[in-house]
Amino acid sequence: MISTTHTLRARPIVLIGGMLLALVAGACAHRTVVPPEPGIADVDSARAAELAAEDSALRADSTRVDSIASHGDVAPESPPRVMSFESRADSLDFENNRQLAEESTGFRVIVSLFDRHLWVVNGTDTLRSAPAAVAMDSTLAFAGHVWKFETPRGKRTVRAKSENPLWVPPDWHYAEVAKENHLALSRVPLKGSVKISHGKKLEVRHQQVGVVVPDSGWVALPLDEEVVFDDTLYMPPLGTKNRRIYGELGSYRLDLGSGYLIHGTPEESTVGDAVTHGCVRLKEDDIAWLYENVPLGTGVYIY
C-alpha cells in the first residue's frame, strides 16, 4: 500500500574490464502521494472541531501519540516508538483514516503504518495477524528529479492478484543506485545507440541491451546486472529483458492500484521495518495466505 536502506537482495559491485556491475535495489515506490479513493468521507466540521480540541496540546511540527492497534496484539518494542506528524492537518488525516478503519465492517484488510502490522478481519473476528514492512517515508532527489517514498493512508481495493510476479524497476531504482555509487545517470535508447568509450556503443537488439564493439559486432550484456560504463549507469528501456526482475516481489502480490502492492519478499528479516519504497511487504507464509483467502474487491484500510 512504505533512509536509503536497501531491503531486497543486493549484488556486490565489481569492476570487470571497465564495466561496473552494480546492485539491484528494493522495489515499489511512487513520486507523489495517491489520495484515498472516492467514497472516503472527509471529517465533518463538528468532528474536526472535536479533534482540534483533543489535539490542542500537540505541536504541529512534532506531534507524539501512542500506538493504536485494536485489531490484534502487537508485541511492544523497547523503547516504545512514538509517532511524529508534519502538521496538524497530517495528524487529522491520520485520525480520520484510523477512525475509518475502526468503523469498517465485513471482510477487509487493515494496515497500521505506525505499528507496521496487517490484519485480515471478518466482522469482529481477526483471521490473520502479520508483521509488515512499510514505506521508509523519505525523499530521493537526483538528476533534477524527486521521488517521495511513502505509503498513502486511506481506503484502497484489491484489484488484481498474481503468482510469481515480475518487477519492472522504475526510474527511481536507477537514480538510487547511481546516487549511492557516485555515478552519472543516462539512458539507452530503444532505437538507435549511445556512444561509450573506445569507440563502443550500447544498442538494443532482440529486446536486450548489448555492446557494439568495433570489428567484433554486438555482444549481449547480462540480464541480472546493471549497465554501467565510464562511471555512468545506463537505464535500459522499458520493454527490454534487462528491465525485468523476477523474485524481488516474493511469490505473490495483491495489486491495490496506482502501483501500490501488498507482496512478499526474499528478505524476510526486513519485515516489520519502515524500509520499502511504498508497498506493504509480508513474509512468504503471510502473503501466500492472503493470496489464497483475500478475494478481489476486498477493501484495504491503511492508516
Any overview of this molecule?
By secondary structure, the chain is of the alpha+beta class. The protein has helices at 45-54, 88-102, 171-180, 284-293, and strands at residues 14-16, 19-21, 107-112, 117-122, 125-131, 134-135, 138-142, 145-149, 154-157, 160-163, 166-167, 184-187, 193-195, 201-205, 208-213, 217-220, 227-229, 232-235, 245-246, 252-255, 261-263, 274-276, 280-281, 299-302. It has 2 domains: 45-60 and 74-167 and 245-302, L,D-transpeptidase catalytic domain-like, CATH 2.40.440.10; 169-243, no CATH class. It contains 4 helices and 24 strands. It is elongated and about 70 Å long.
CATH architecture of the largest domain: Beta Barrel
Q: What's the rounded overall pLDDT mean?
A: 81
**What is the CATH top level name of the largest domain?**
Mainly Beta
> Approximately how much helix is present in the residues?
10-25%
- Total number of distinct structural domains: 2
Poorly predicted residue ranges: 1-26, 29-49, 51-72
Q: What is the CA-based Rg, rounded?
A: 22 Å
Largest sheet: 5 strands, mixed
Number-wise, the strands total: 24
Secondary-structure element order, N to C: EEHHEEEEEEEEEHEEEEEEEEEEEEHE
- Write the CATH fold name of the largest domain: L,D-transpeptidase catalytic domain-like
Termini Cα gap: 10 Å
Anisotropy-based shape: elongated
Strand content: 25-35%
So how many helices? 4
Largest beta sheet: strand ordering: 5-4-3-24-9
Structural class: alpha+beta
Report the CATH superfamily of the largest domain.
L,D-transpeptidase catalytic domain-like
